[in-house]
Design goal:
Three copies of one chain form a homotrimer. By secondary structure, the first copy, chain A, is α/β, with parallel strands linked by helices. In chain A, about 45% of the residues lie in helices and about 5% in strands. In chain A, strands 6-7-10-11 form a four-stranded parallel beta sheet, covered by helices on one side. In chain A, strands 1-2-4 form a three-stranded parallel beta sheet. Chain A is globular. Chains in contact: A-B, A-C, B-C. At the A-B interface, helix 1, helix 16, helix 17, helix 18 and helix 19 of A face helix 4, helix 6, strand 9 and helix 18 of B. Chains A, B, C: It catalyses: D-glucuronate = D-fructuronate. Chains A, B, C: InterPro entries: Metal_Hydrolase, Uronate_isomerase. Chains A, B, C: Its EC number is 5.3.1.12.
Chain lengths: ~500, ~500, ~500
């Protein structure tokens, strides 16, 4: 096996440099020879299909500027919260990884030093999706020759740096090189969308915005008053209560649709969509505008506004994406010191059956609503998510999210939801990353998982091979396209 | 593989007709050659054992009348909520499937049209148990020659229709043809049991009733007052409060026992069995009789009455089956329009450890109580259900229920509960279907799953092959028999 | 396969005696030939490593006395709650198993009779970890020649009895024979630690105590006032309120550290660590000292005291082990009649993300805190436990606990947590048994599971074989050592 394995011996078993590094073509496929050979046949049919990336977090400005990426560390290490959190969990300080401090305090600034710290801890990533993705980025995208280790750190740093300096590795060139057919970004409700316009003018209309209004739907967020003021300015509507807040949101959604947006995205602590009495909802908004916020009322209002978002989707056709169940910034001191998205978001139990009932009562059969549900609580797969998606025409299941976006997590997802939701009530694979170079790695992993799962159905005579291949193409390409249809022209 | 696969290419890859259609003998067995060969040996020992069907929902009138079944659509499509919900989830209207409207509004009435709609959406069922069951019904029971598709719809319709017209396919003849040794029906507390008496008189005492008092244990159900009045009439006891309600229930249970019943069946939202003060319970019943219902009190009373059901089981010996954790009629508009059981029942988190404590404190060691627990919340398998069944003599675990009655769901059940409950604290396989022709398919699937699971234990040297075969016979036949013993001479 | 299987045909298929009995060397390894061969290579590297047993419940007095064990039944049957609960669940009375009654009522006292009862029910343990462990104890440790059955009961009883009479099977000799490098016992907060001192004086300092203060952290326990009084006496500090309670606990922790303790252990119903206002906490303690206890306040205080335990660990360096989520003594009548630990402890849903937040806010990054989390609620593996352990430096995940300490439970644990926590945020294997002779069986099972899991990663090209072997040694030996570092010298 070792002759054909996917990666090097890690930090603690000696690694030479310049020895070359290739990934095994069967990585991530089932070991059993019968399944392996079937999975290979399925994978061949989908491996090189274009990438439909409808839920990314790449900064649109990066694409508009289209400049060479920075150094290896600031591209691949510092902003990757999967990677940072693992190193931190084993005692590596945020400072040593160059994660900026809000107080301007000193952190490591030498990218080579940061890279060495990462490389010398490579063994921590054994068995993790982070390693599987990084191996794809380093070998398949960047052509790195050596496995990460303390010994090879400088060599790999130089290999990556050289590659990043090449014109073919500028952001827009990479869209082609990586086979990305469409790329959705995530944009605040008050975004000016100028970068998207500029890109479209230059022929890059395949980069589309996504309407993400979380900041203005949660009146208990510290920056809510500023954010809602900016929303009003951008919309040309002064927000004085619920009606003007809704009007401003509708106005901005129109602007997003005009800019090519196909979807909205909502990150809420719970999936609650219980309506409030409009007068009560207005009272909460007005009070919040005065700076008076009751936490319980704020939580209730966010559910009411989520229901309003569904109503607006039935009117403007934007696909509604819901990502509930993550308690953000679990450690308040880290949040104060480093800000959000540094690895301290922790899932909580998430209920869907009762929480979504008000929304589905109203709009579950509405021909213009598409509600895509994501979760980090796999306990809901077979109990709530598949039964809901398996009956309501408006509901689709997104791909396993975040901590479940893994070889085994995606396998468990298919095993748990296919029984009741089938394949066609899922969106196929939807990636979710801010790491641009990692997008193909996410799709590659998902395609391998689906190939392995479909291979098992064939081997157990539950599906024909031709059906499996056709379904694999659906999951990799057709379903994501169909789940996020264009609203323009 | 394709030469030996179980089914055709589905709606979107062309399907010819008259090409013949057979199911692979190894369908549903593990792919690994070592496991496959062991699983075959286990399956051979159980595949043709008689069927003990102790939890069915077949209408007893259908058996008493013993007339030929209707057309293919009204037998296999319209009443099957698994099938209907999947088609609805992909945008097929209930009307097009001929699901009747309560307002008498027009729905599709041409069974051939309904069959075409079903057949042309065959691809939606890829990977689902519905397909696995239907394949068994169509090929093994009805001898259909063509795989369902738009192209073959008329041919398969005619093949099924012809078969259903044969005398050998009348309900009672099918009891023999399908190898059903005993069939339990589900009957309301006020059922007159005349059909069972008539069948017994004709020598069909293998058709036994099951006491299902849900309608009268939930005072918040809209029809409760009518139902409880009918209960009183049938029992010859006017229900004026808790004592008379309990007396009427006891009287009816006696009638069910006399009619050959072996079990009761209880569908509650929660598994709560907390007793109320009898005076308070009486007050709630009396108020409900006046039409005054407080939801919380109604819910509490249903728990109190569940505990009374356990007490009665210790007296009359009826096995107590509990099916908690399903929120019925999730979409109220569909319920108003189409009634219950059209696919909108959605599971919720279900707690057992605390909920069942009052019942188990009182009766968990009672020699005459057998409490069979079912669930659609697989998260409780290893955490609560196996530990409870693994210590209380009164408790047995029923088969994975409803959305979990699948190849992968039943495998996960064995993997999760055997560690702590073993095999002998389960009932073996108990089917749960209103689709008469599908009963053998349910047992066939369960026998394949258990054969595969037991094969793995043998291959991992955790069990001997002779033990595995013996255990397979227990799960398929002996344990279901033992779990529901006859109460009559 | 049968020629090489691990065990006999069980009670109901005839078993001869004196036929010899050996365990298959590959038991518990994956069946697939590719995985089997890789797993063998991994297992070879770890199978004979010394045992680090940091969470045992062996009575230290048994080691100090170092006398021959009693008869086979009182060693292997009566005290084993896994075994007793399974027999009870199938109708064998506690009395027949010799489980003592608190009221002094008569129970079976003939160990041979008890052994016969156990042996004649051997088939109940098919597929359970109890059987897997017992097979190791009987064959590998005690050299029993016959598989348990009614027929072989007397023969196996005599074989075990003879072996137990040999000097080489006295407790201390077994520490060497079983390859136990270090053994932690569990000791109440008021333990005099004399046995540990005596053992150390005789050169057996490898037997270390563990500080288990549950009895004095729960003011609602019936014996709390007695226990806290004894705590005060032992500490030389009269407990009159919260400050003196904390002072006494700190004093006792110092004594435990001096006696070689490396850890504390906490069994709480919930993982809550919410601080109370100190005045309120003091009020609850003072009231409890007067015998006045409010259940809610008692529960809240136990969370407050758990937080104090973490604070003390940051000061004295004792590793903090938390075992939440078990509802003890589910059947109060059995508890009154037989006392605790006879099989009636049932898991409940356990929340970690919010419950541990107060503790982790304060100490999650503290260099001297190590918090080891155990669970019997596997639903929290991927949703809460792995994300917490994957970012907080203080947190490690212990091995799957109790009902999850099984071949399939441990496999599911690795599959669910490795994605986010990796291997190095787990403690490796930590056993948890009061059955001394069973300790090697627990480690043997865990090593087989990890060998199988790592083999799959290699076969799927997610890991190199040399990395897998190195990681296996970490999980079996290095990580448990590192997780519980010595505090002395």
């Amino acid at each position: 096996m070792t002759a054909t394995t996917t990666s090097g011996p890690g930090a603690r078993t000696g690694a030479g440099t310049g020895t070359g590094w290739t990934l095994h073509p069967d990585r991530g496929l089932p070991a059993d020879p019968v399944l392996r050979s079937l999975a290979r046949q399925v994978l061949e049919a989908i491996q090189h299909l274009p990438i439909v990336s409808m839920h990314g977090h790449v900064d649109v400005g990066l694409l508009e500027r289209d400049e060479a990426f920075g150094d290896p560390a600031s591209l691949l290490v510092v902003p990757d919260h999967y990677l940072v959190r693992m190193l931190v969990s084993q005692g590596v300080p945020h400072d040593a990884l160059g994660v900026p401090r809000r107080d301007g305090g000193a952190v490591e600034t030498d990218p080579r030093e940061i890279w060495r710290t990462f490389a010398s801890h490579w063994h921590l990533f054994r068995g993790t999706p982070t390693r599987f993705w990084l191996e794809h980025v380093l070998v398949e995208v960047l052509g790195v020759q050596d496995r990460p280790s303390a010994a090879s750190a400088d060599a790999t740093y130089d290999q990556v740096a050289t590659r990043l300096a090449e014109p073919g590795f500028r952001p827009l060139a990479l869209l082609d090189r990586l086979g990305i057919e469409i790329l959705a970004t995530t944009d605040a409700a008050d975004a000016d969308l100028g970068s998207h316009a500029a890109l479209a003018a230059r022929g890059w209309s395949r980069v589309v915005p996504t309407f993400r209004p979380d900041a203005v739907l949660h009146v208990d967020r510290p920056t809510w008053r500023t954010d809602v003021a900016r929303l009003g300015e951008r919309a040309g509507i002064e927000v004085t209560g619920l009606p003007t807040l809704l009007a401003a949101l509708e106005e901005r959604r129109r602007a997003f649709v005009a800019a090519g947006a196909r979807a909205t995205d909502h990150g809420h602590l719970s999936a609650d969509t219980t309506p409030l009495d409009p007068a009560e909802a207005d009272r909460v908004v007005v009070a919040a505008l005065r700076g008076e916020v009751e936490p319980a009322a704020a939580q209730a209002l966010s559910g009411h506004l989520l229901l309003e978002m569904a109503r607006m989707s039935t009117e403007d056709g934007l696909v509604m994406q819901l990502h509930p169940g993550v308690l953000r910034d679990h450690d308040p001191r880290v949040h104060v010191q480093r800000g959000p998205d540094v690895g301290y978001d922790i899932p909580v139990v998430t209920e869907y059956t009762r929480a979504l009932r008000p929304l589905l009562e109203r709009y579950g059969h509405h021909p213009r609503l598409r509600l895509v549900l994501f979760t980090v609580d796999e306990d809901a797969f077979s109990r709530e998510l598949a039964p809901l998606a398996g009956v309501y025409p408006a509901v689709r299941l997104g791909a396993p999210w975040w901590f479940l976006d893994t070889l085994d997590g995606m396998r468990r997802f298919r095993e748990a939801v296919t029984d009741t939701a089938g394949f066609f009530n899922t969106t196929g694979f939807v990636d979710d990353t801010r790491a641009f170079l990692s997008i193909p790695a996410r799709h590659d992993m998902a395609r391998r998982v689906d190939a392995g799962y479909l291979a098992r159905l064939v081997a157990e005579h539950r599906l024909d091979l031709d059906e499996a291949v056709e379904t694999a193409v659906d999951l990799a390409y057709r379903l994501p396209q169909a789940a996020y249809p264009p609203l323009l022209g």
